[in-house]
Amino acid sequence: QLQLVESGGGLVQPGGSLRLSCVASGLTLDYYALGWFRRAPGKERERVSCISSRGGSTNYADSVKGRFTISRDNAKNTVYLQMNSLKPEDTAVYYCASLNYCSGPVTNWGQGTQVTVSS
User: In this predicted model, what pLDDT tens digit does every residue of 10-57 receive, in sequence order?
Assistant: First the structure.
């Protein structure tokens, strides 16, 4: 059973940066696409970014393009989300997830990590 554990969330001022990490255990991530999702208060969960199994393909929500970067280190069984130029509207619980491919359904979810952007 694949387990995903996020870390790196916290409180940051507008314009600041955070890097989220998601470490997998139980199974190797080599054959999974990996995604980051978020749910803001009172809103539906949305996909933020996804990276293919070998890291050769990435995609981003329009709201984060140019500010967020997804990456992965299969040797460390870890996926990252570097978030720069953070805005108050980025405040949400961020979840990592595994997928068979980026356009497919989620197969496993992490427990989430809170990101709060506020002055």
Answer: 999 999 999 999 999 887 888 899 999 999 999 999 999 999 988 889
Distance CA 34, CA 66 (A): 19
What DSSP designation does 111 have?
Answer: -
Q: Which residue has the tokens 């953070």?
A: 86
> What 3-state class would DSSP assign to 4?
strand
Is 74 in a helix, a strand, or coil?
A: helix
Give the separation between CA 19 and CA 35, rounded to whole angstroms.
Answer: 14
How far separated are the first and last CA of the chain, in Å rounded? 40
The whole-number pLDDT of residue 56 equals 86
Cα–Cα distance for residue pair 99/43, rounded to 1 Å: 22
